[in-house]
Amino acid sequence: xxxxxxxxxxxxxxxxxxxxxxxxxxxxxxxxxxxxxxxxxxxxxxxxxxxxxxxxxxxxxxxxxxxxxxxxxxxxxxxxxxxxxxxxxxxxxxxxxxxxxxxxxxxxxxxxxxxxxxxxxxxxxxxxxxxxxxxxxxxxxxxxxxxxxxxxxxxxxxxxxxxxxxxxxxxxxxxxxxxxxxxxxxxxxxxxxxxxxxx
Length: 199
What we know:
4 strands; four-stranded parallel beta sheet; single chain; 8 helices; about 200 residues; alpha/beta
């Protein structure tokens, strides 16, 4: 699925997951409508991971979702934007962050401070696999560790030594594949059991 402002999807603004989570929920609802008995697994990298988790945390997230894999997602857009300003762009957070936030509020109708996954993640009712490269200097690993610690649900974590942003699989394909395949199988079994009980 292309997020808004990407690929073949409509829209021009990227909203760091604040609005994309509702798009993802709508995709899940559409899939449930077309294929009522089809379980869906969300997997995302970076902003895609954050969107997947935010969508799964929504109270009206459809029951066709069976699990989420979140690779190097950020826990809070505000923290990530400030980090990039300081470390990658070598620019002062004040006043640039506040100016960027003002532009986003006026042009796209969202604020970087609107969602904090460490506070919202317990809305997720399905298992979550967290993945992060320990050498990631774009989205630091503390984002994933923060979400993992805050989440009280069914969870696993894979931290890959030497892996930069979004390349945990490339750094250690055997380990990541093994964990991911086992996790998907477990999510599917759990989803089937729950649906047998309710059906």
